[in-house]
Amino acid sequence: MSKVLGILNFEPSYVYVKGIEDFRPISAASILGRYRVIDFMLSNFTNSGIDSIKVYLKNRPRSIVEHITRTSYNINSKRGKIHLLHGEQEFGNNDLFNVDIQAFRTYMEFVDVENPSYVVIAPSHFIFKQDFNELLNHHIKSKNDITILYQNSNNTDQEFLMGDILLMDDRKKVTGFVKNRGKHKAGKVSLETYVMSTLTFKELVNEATMTSSLYSLSDIISDNCKVLKVGGYLHHGYCACISTLKAYYDANMRIKNERELTRLINDDWPIYTMTNDSCPTLYKPGAKVTGSLVANGCQIEGTVINSVIGRNVVIKEGAVIKDSVVLPDTFIDKNVKLECGVVDRLSIITHIKDLKGTKEDPIYIKRGDRI
Amino acid sequence: MIKNNMVAMILAGGRGSRLFELTKKVAKPAVHFGGKYRIIDFALSNCANSHISTVGVLVQYESILLSSYSARSSTWGLDSKGGGVYVLSPREKDETGLGLYNGTADAIYQNLDFLDQEDAEYVLVLSGDHIYKMDYEKMLQTHIDSNAEATIAVIEVPKREASRFGIMNTDKNDRIIEFEEKPKEPKSNLASMGVYIFTYKTLKKYLREDAKLSESSHDFGKNIIPAYLNDKLKLQAYRFKGYWKDVGTIDSLWEANMDLLKDNSGLDLFDPDWKIYTDDVSNTPQCIGSKAEINNAFITQGAIVNGKVDHSVIFSGVHVKENAKVTDSVIMNNAVIGEGAKLNRCLVADDVRVPDGMVLGKKNSDEILLVSKSLIAKAGEENE
Fold first, then answer.
1. Predicted complex: ipTM over 0.85
2. d(CA B88, CA B110)
């Protein structure tokens, strides 16, 4: 097998998850009760046999550094490596200049050291399951210069906003990108996952640098669709682009039953995450829980309907949690009614008994808040 | 934290034959417990939380799973430099050839070279099949303060049950003056928990002498402790207050699991200062279906519940299907409870598939029904 380097890119500037992102990059946000967003893409890499991975970080690296260094993503700890690359001085203050190309250029020597034949570049704000080996084999077989993973969506007026939509000709060749401004219902959504030779990658980074300091990798690929052979590879199944609070909420709420859950995560495609050594969850007499995903370490006395409950959450009697996402280490006191909410970590809800958002605009409770 | 060189030795070689099929292919300490744990996690986590860095696990019966499991020291954070979990199985020796462990004391005797190599000053001898949380560091402090040669952890048991245990009779300073194994008429209610701290130098001498005696059963309770008492060595009792359970039978294993549903059992697994560590398996979160009904349950990740669960403990990867009803039961790893099946007072072994509609166990039954693969096969034949 040719040597392949995994590159986990940081989120582009269109991503802003209100509230959640004030405290950590979106890749470090808790998802589906027991994971962090980044676990899905890192597990995609390691499950595909790619055990050399560079993780580029934009800012506030603390939570990601802690999480990655304490998680075993199932790679040989001597031969494989997850390498964290975050800005030191050159970038970090001004988000405008904080584009991925700058990060790639700054740390190109670490890519050179590995001397891979191919790079697989994946985004850190998406959740999907993809065998990158299949993608790479397709790339090699089709003799593409660049292969882009995409998904057909009939919901582009609601989701994937400001992401890239691929324009393709009838021979499946990508002719360019347009920004999704939500004007059309359907489109081929770029999953911001690219395979190319290391040589092409380096050429693109150089070219982008010379073109404009604001250029991102997706900009320069879009420019090159006319001169390079850029192909698409269709992805099927669950796919979430976590670019807004609503998208974050929906990504959690979309898994409704065990069939959908085990299609995304199963014994053949495990998702690795940090263990917290929490004990199982205690459902006390009187608890009512239906249609929900629940992590370990919770103590539930109240009612939970269609929700996602993170680790070590306490829900007292009489409380009703409906259509909500509750992040780890949260305390929900007696008789609190919460509907369509996102409750961030370590918060305590006691005094305000009625919290209600809508599915379109979920209410957000700040990390560590006491209300 | 006291600077010490106490090496823990966990006796984990027994079969646990009163657990029947549960221990057919795995040793008792490796049997699952409490949703996500194995029984030996309690002893190993207690060691880690008590700042013990070197732990020997003495294995013998069906040891493949137990050995590979225990050897992953990092599971309990016991992977510091110079420390670790050492799996000690019977081995072939230059002078004596291949010999099995023949009694608890013999198992330690055969590993004196290991204890020498680790430069042990104190030896903590534990059983690998008890459920409890205990700070061995405090016990060592008592051992040192009282100048004892051996300290034995004791727990108060109800007088009427005392004749089932090894009973320690003590003076007013908790010095042990007499030891009686399962006495018909117990003089005290202080039962030995099978947790001993020995000053190594003295222990080594007594183990060597005991090894020479052909009539000895090479057992701590039957031989070593009586020999200490006989020679008037100082034996101290260390009173333990809290939850402690020997899970040697199906009924007691079921009971200990059920204790996890109580608010006041004394076994608090939620305490962040004394976590019980276990293997980190990649599981999905618990998936509770839209028709599920859960009333009082202890459920761990990887479980899928679509039926009714009442007063039960559900382990990793268990699937309770639609309209199934699980009451007062313990469902072990990856078992599947088929649609419409009804279970009452059962302990379902790992990987068992209970067919749709099967009814097992009875409310108010005297004994807990062990639901094993062979029981399901037999029930299937009878139906045909």
1. yes
2. 10
Question: Which residues make Cβ contacts (< 8 Å) with residue B376, sequence separation at least 6?
Answer: B352, B353, B354, B355, B358
Angle CA(B317)–CA(B319)–CA(B323) in degrees, nearest 5? 165
* Interface residues of chain A, partner chain B, Cβ below 8 Å: 32-34, 72, 256-258, 261-262, 265, 270-273, 275, 277, 279-297, 299, 306, 308
Q: H helices within chain A, ranges in order?
A: 37-47, 62-69, 100-106, 108-114, 132-141, 198-211, 217-224, 245-253, 258-264
All residues of chain B having their beta carbon less than 8 Å from the beta carbon of residue A261 are: 284-285, 287
- Residue A173 gets which letter from DSSP? B
Q: Which residues of B touch A277 (CB under 8 A)?
A: 275-278
Indicate left, alpha or beta for B79 from its phi (over 0: left) and psi (-120 to 50: alpha).
alpha
Q: Do A172 and A305 fall within a single domain?
A: no
| Helix, strand and coil percent figures for chain A, each rounded to 5 | 25, 30, 45
Q: Would you say A74 and A267 are in contact if contact means Cβ atoms under 8 Å apart? A: no
Q: Are residues A323 and A243 in the same domain?
A: no
* Contacting residues for B176 by C-beta, under 8 A, at least 6 apart: B152, B168, B169, B170, B229, B235, B236, B237
DSSP class of residue B363 equals T
Chain mean pLDDT for chain B = 94
Residue from A116, A300, A368, A104 nearest A219 by CA: A104
CB contact under 8 A, A279 and B280: no
| Number of structural domains found in chain A | 2
Q: Nearest Cβ partner of B289 from A258, A275, A281?
A: A258
Q: In this structure, are A168 and A304 located in the same domain?
A: no
pLDDT digits (tens, 9 = 90+) for A156-196: 999 999 999 999 998 889 999 999 999 999 999 999 999 99
Boundaries of domain holding A45? 4-264
Asked if residue A344 is part of any domain, the answer here is: yes
Q: In whole angstroms, what is the distance from residue B132 CA to residue B246 CA?
A: 9
**Domain check: are A137 and A257 in the same one?**
yes
The Cα–Cα gap between A71 and A126 comes to 19
> Same structural domain for residues A138 and A232?
yes
Which residues is A321 bridged to in the sheet?
A: A304, A338
Say how far apart CA B83 and CA B7 lie, in whole Å. 10
- Residue B272 is encoded by which pair of tokens? 């962040």
* Cβ atoms < 10 Å from Cβ of B56: 26
Residues A174, A133 share a domain? yes
* Residues 6 or more apart in contact with residue A272 via CB below 8 angstroms: A39, A42, A43, A46, A71, A72, A73, A74, B282
Closest CA to B124 of B244, B2, B9: B9
Q: What is the mean pLDDT of chain A?
A: 92
- Quote the minimal CA–CA distance from B266 to chain A in Å: 15
CA-based nearest residue to B286, from A313, A322, A340: A313
Question: Kind of pairing, strands B190-199 and B244-246?
Answer: unpaired
- Over residues A186-225, the pLDDT tens digits come to 999 999 999 999 999 999 999 999 998 889 999 999 999 9
Output the six-digit token pair for B273: 């200062």
Measured between CA atoms, the residue of chain A closest to residue B310 is A285
We report the CATH number of the domain holding residue A335 as 2.160.10.10
Asked if residue A42 and residue A191 are part of one domain, the reply reads yes
Q: Say what the pTM is.
A: 0.93
Same domain flag for A291 and A257: no
* A87 belongs to a structural domain: yes
User: Residue A146 falls within a domain, yes or no?
Assistant: yes
Residue A52, both tokens: 């050399």
- Whether residue A37 is contained in a domain is answered as yes
Residue A94's pLDDT is: 52
